Structures are given as structure tokens and as C-alpha cells.
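Q: Got a minute? One more chain.
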Amino acid sequence: MSMIHHFHGGRRSSSAFDPFSLNIWDPFKDLDFPQLSRENAVFVNTRVDWKETNDAHVFKADLPGMKKEEVKVEIEDDRVLQISGERNVEKEDKNDTWHRIERSSGKFSRRFRLPENVKMDEVKASMENGVLTVTVPKVQTKRAETRSISISG
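A: Always. Here it is, folded:
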């Protein structure tokens, strides 16, 4: 009976299982899991799509509410595309009462190694409606030409 008493938070119960009990046993409550800070939330939530077309590699990043001045697009010499930025925390007024804070703030950075067939000096970026589009043109490969050779003799 002492085990039943312990699992039900000190109250006595006529059965070992009470489906209406709000005392839920959590086997993980004493384990130390790293908590995701608000600073890391933007980094984790920055979604980027990468597609390859016949002419270019196109990256699209969802950055709702951000201005183009808050975003940096860089290309490193070893063909690494980096998209980074920072979303600032909204200024708090001491008289405001916050009921919920779900929008993330802080720094973010995403890096992508580009393939060898890109024109790194012709990269273009644009931002519209909170979507950053980075276009990295591809080097056009020559198609093998077939030429007929006349046979003498």
C-alpha cells in the first residue's frame, strides 16, 4: 500500500490506477536535459530550401518580420554560402503585462557548402515578404560536339 500511496502524491486511493488523476508520473523529471534558450530558437527555426535548376542553385529562407538590413549573405573563398542575421528583442515597457512570448529573437546563422560548378562572383540576393532568395548561377558546361571526319583513301 505504501507504493500506491507514493505514486498518488500522498492521497489515499481505492485503486492503484486513477484515470482522472492530475498527478502524472514523469520518468524524465529528474534528468538534466539542455534547455533551448530564446537566443538559439531563431537559429533552430530558420528554415532554408535549396533547389538546383538548370541555370542556378536557389536558396529560400523564411525570415518573417526581418528587414534586409538585419540579414547578411556572404560567400567564403572555399565555396561556403553563409546566411546570418539578428532579430532584436522587442522593447519592454515596465507597465506591460505579457501573457505569452512565442516569437523568437537573437542571432541565426546557416552555412552551405556549394558545389564546384558555381559562379561565386555572380551571386544575387533579394528579400520580399519575409522570404530571402539567394541565387547562385552555375557554370554552363559545354556539350560535346560531334564532328564528322572524312576518311581519305
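A: The radius of gyration is 28 Å.
Q: Perfect, thanks.
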